[in-house]
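Dataset card, provenance and construction

Sequences and ligand SMILES were collected as paired inputs. For each pair, a complete structure of the chain with the small molecule in place was predicted and serialized as structure tokens. The example below shows a pair involving copper (II) ion. Curators did not alter the output after generation; any descriptive sentences attached to a record were derived from the structure itself.
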Amino acid sequence: MKASRLLCALILVAATCVQAQGTAKPVAPAASASKSTMPLVVAEVKKVDMEKGLIVLNHGDLPNLGMPAMTMGFDVADKKMLQGIKVGQKVKFQAEMVGGKATVTELKPAR
Ligand SMILES: [Cu+2]
């Protein structure tokens, strides 16, 4: 699925360019940009490590990271996000690369 990942990356770049031109503002920090513009992705919690601030998710497509559905570990932006999150639970989340690591920036229970 290399081709579709590349396509996603190109679309993302194009969208960012259009947005930057349209608003004539400096590009906003990734965290706030993705929070407001990216839809939340459904995932199932496989593991939670409160101490290290880690969560393992079986997630759906993450277009902004160019990722297909998979199970993988994420850092979390804030360990408090893991409070009340249990293994086996369905969640909705958004993630982005922070310092080269896939990091959950938004996380909430799904039904
Ligand atoms: Cu992944």
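Derived descriptions for this record:
The pocket of copper (II) ion is lined by residues 59, 67, 70, 72 (CB under 6 Å).
The first strand starts at residue 41 and ends at 49.
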